[in-house]
Amino acid sequence: xxxxxxxxxxxxxxxxxxxxxxxxxxxxxxxxxxxxxxxxxxxxxxxxxxxxxxxxxxxxxxxxxxxxxxxxxxxxxxxxxxxxxxxxxxxxxxxxxxxxxxxxxxxxxxxxxxxxxxxxxxxxxxxxxxxxxxxxxxxxxxxxxxxxxxxxxxxxxxxxxxxxxxxxxxxxxxxxxxxxxxxxxxxxxxxxxxxxxxxxxxxxxxxxxxxxxxxxxxxxxxx
Length: 223
Prior knowledge:
By secondary structure, the chain is mostly helical. Helix content is about 65%, strand content about 0%. It is built from 6 helices and no strands. It is elongated.
């Protein structure tokens, strides 16, 4: 049985029977995820500026990249966790190593914590496909695009607020206090899913309000 001293997670007394250390160093795990995320962001940006489509602002092209990136992260990374969380401590392979690296910032991912599993399952199987649907709607200028953008952004923001709140109530006891893990991984990475959804919520509300104002405007009958 693996003792507390044989794993890198907090609290140090955390029991992880059968734990198998990651094969890849942490910088490689973080780098591979970063490259994949940047690649999806770039693809969305480029598709938003493709020839033959109406001009889009830089902000809207970034939104395309954002939702494509979210679809990949939610569907692949969080989908893997949703399906494999129980055997994650002794699992091997790239995705398992990525989660073992991130779990230094939040060891709840190594213990099948009820809230974390529930949140990530919703994120993977609801916000993942809906992020891709939002990407397509924005790309094709579908009339429902801002409704989808609002729905997904609100769901992401709500999940992230609960994620931070539950750990705060636990006294921030599951994160390695090293600045890289607490401020970089836990606060920094998850903070992105607070700031960007807030901006996209504001953008959705602005466009939906403008559409409603146009609909409410008195129509003059032609004679």
